[in-house]
Every structure is written in structure tokens, then in C-alpha cells.
């Protein structure tokens, strides 16, 4: 858990608030760390030894976590591969992770979710690497489309590939995308307009909606206490 998260918890006025928030935060942190989902996130977040992993090593590790259980929590098996983190341009380590997820998916039959690089061409590149490695497009989820496609034509062109299209940044309403300020972030209303466009074009069964809640300040404490 980050130092800022600790400080936020310690600032809560009531001991019961601190205790309950700590429990929730610990659970979220464990989940973020990989329990329940097996994954390789973006190159910039990896240790040196992880960056050196071969496709075969990644396939073996993900297969273990999907079929036998996770190393630190062997009583929990993963139910999904993801997020597989990709940058733009795609790093060689990330390319291997995408290939490994395709190979593992073909064997295990599980869903796979991708975090695409911050460029409209990134999702299709990932799609081709994944499917050429054996991955099933019908089991593939492309996340973070809110900040990736900014034209309706580009969105429909990608959806035509047959994967799930995920709008998962609901609730983040800022003028610019914080991680790429050249991108105008859509509002929730604009997200709904884009989703409706997918529905109008026949992709109603291929839409996923989520909140990518990865920071403590976006939790509403009162609901949990
Ligand atoms: Zn992500």
C-alpha cells in the first residue's frame, strides 16, 4: 500500500473508520496485486527479472495461477487474465505478454482483458498479436476505450473485430486525460453517447461498463462504515 494511502487512513477521525477502511484497502490492494487475476502489467511497472521472462515462462506462470492457484494465496485460482498492460509504442516485453495471454487463453478458455497503449492504433495491434498466438477474440476485452478512441468511425471499426468493448473510466470527469493531456476526456454523458453508437451499430452484446477504481480517494467511505 502506498504511503499516501496510509496517511489518508490515519487522518480518519474514528478508530472504527480507520479499522474498516484498512480492511477494505488491504483487500483491494491484494486484488490489485494479482489475486483473482493473472497478469503482466506495463513494462514500466516491472522488475528486471520479470522483463526478461520468455513467452513460455509467462504461459507457465499464468496457467499455474488459473488451474492450481496463486503462489502467495494457493487457495485462490485466477478467473481471468488481465489487465495485460501495453504501452505505445508496444515494448518487446509487452508483446511477449500479449502473445503469452493468447497461448494461455487457447489452452484455458478464460477471458483476457487488455490495457491498450494511449493511441487509437494500439487496440488493433494488440488484437492481431493475441489472435495470431491462438487467443479467441470472443473472449477478449479491450479496456479503457474512453481515452483511446475519439471518433465514432474508429470505435465502430475496432468493434467490428468482434471483441468486447469496455468503457471503464466512468466517474472520471476531467477536462483532459491526466496521463495524456493532449486527449480531451469524455464526460459520462459523452461515454453514454459513444456506447449508444455501438448499440445502434449492432454491438449491444459486446459492451462492458465499469469503474476503474484504483485510488482510495474515489471510495465513498460512508457506504462502508
Ligand atoms: Zn489499465
Verbal overview:
- This protein has 225 residues and is of the alpha/beta class.
- The chain folds into 2 domains: 1-33, no CATH class; 35-224, TIM Barrel.
- Helix content is 43%, strand content 13%.
- It contains 9 helices and 8 strands.
- It has helices at 3-10, 15-32, 48-51, 55-67, 92-108, 122-132, 152-159, 188-200, 221-224; strands at 37-38, 80-85, 112-115, 140-142, 164-167, 176-177, 180-184, 207-209.
- Strands 1-2-3-4-5-8 form a 6-stranded parallel sheet. A two-stranded antiparallel sheet has the order 6-7.
- The protein is globular and about 40 Å long.
- The chain starts with a helix and ends with a helix.
- The structure holds zinc ion.
- Zinc ion (ZN) is lined by residues 83, 115, 143-144.
How would you briefly describe this protein structure?
It is built from 9 helices and 8 strands. Helices cover 43% and strands 13% of the residues. It is globular.
Helix content, binned percent: 40-55%
Strand content is 5-15%
Q: Major β-sheet, in short?
A: 6 strands, parallel
Sketch the topology as an H/E string, one letter per element: HHEHHEHEHEHEEEHEH
| Total strands | 8
Instruction: Give the bound compounds.
Output: zinc ion
The DSSP helix count reads 9
Strand order of the largest sheet: 1-2-3-4-5-8
Count of spatially separate domains: 2
Poorly predicted spans:
1-12, 22-35
Apparent shape = globular
Structural class by sheet pairing and helices = alpha/beta
CATH 2nd-level architecture of the largest domain: Alpha-Beta Barrel
Question: Radius of gyration, rounded?
Answer: 18 Å
CATH class of the largest domain: Alpha Beta
According to CATH, the fold-level topology of the largest domain is TIM Barrel
What is the terminal separation in angstroms? 21 Å
Average per-residue pLDDT, rounded, comes to 85
Amino acid at each position: 500500500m502506498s504511503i499516501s494511502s496510509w496517511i489518508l487512513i490515519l487522518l480518519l477521525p474514528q478508530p472504527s473508520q480507520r479499522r474498516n477502511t484498512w480492511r477494505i484497502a488491504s483487500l483491494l490492494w491484494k486484488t490489485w496485486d494479482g489475486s483473482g487475476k493473472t497478469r503482466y502489467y506495463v513494462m514500466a511497472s516491472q522488475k528486471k527479472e520479470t522483463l526478461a521472462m520468455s513467452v513460455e515462462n509467462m504461459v507457465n506462470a499464468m496457467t499455474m495461477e488459473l488451474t492450481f492457484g496463486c503462489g502467495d494465496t494457493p487457495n485462490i485460482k485466477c478467473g481471468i487474465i488481465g489487465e495485460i498492460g501495453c504501452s505505445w509504442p508496444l515494448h518487446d516485453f509487452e508483446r511477449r505478454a500479449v502473445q503469452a495471454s493468447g497461448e494461455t487463453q487457447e489452452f484455458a478458455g478464460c477471458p483476457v482483458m487488455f490495457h491498450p497503449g494511449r493511441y487509437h492504433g494500439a487496440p488493433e495491434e494488440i488484437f492481431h498479436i493475441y489472435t495470431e498466438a491462438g487467443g479467441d477474440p470472443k473472449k477478449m476485452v479491450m479496456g479503457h476505450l474512453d481515452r483511446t478512441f475519439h471518433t465514432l468511425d474508429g470505435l465502430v471499426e475496432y468493434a467490428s473485430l468482434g471483441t468486447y468493448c469496455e468503457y471503464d473510466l466512468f466517474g472520471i470527469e476531467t477536462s483532459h486525460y491526466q496521463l495524456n493531456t493532449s486527449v480531451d476526456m469524455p464526460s459520462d454523458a459523452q461515454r453514454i453517447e459513444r456506447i449508444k453508437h455501438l448499440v445502434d451499430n449492432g454491438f449491444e452484446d459486446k459492451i462492458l461498463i465499469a469503474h476503474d477504481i484504483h485510488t482510495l480517494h474515489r471510495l465513498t467511505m460512508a457506504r462502508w462504515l
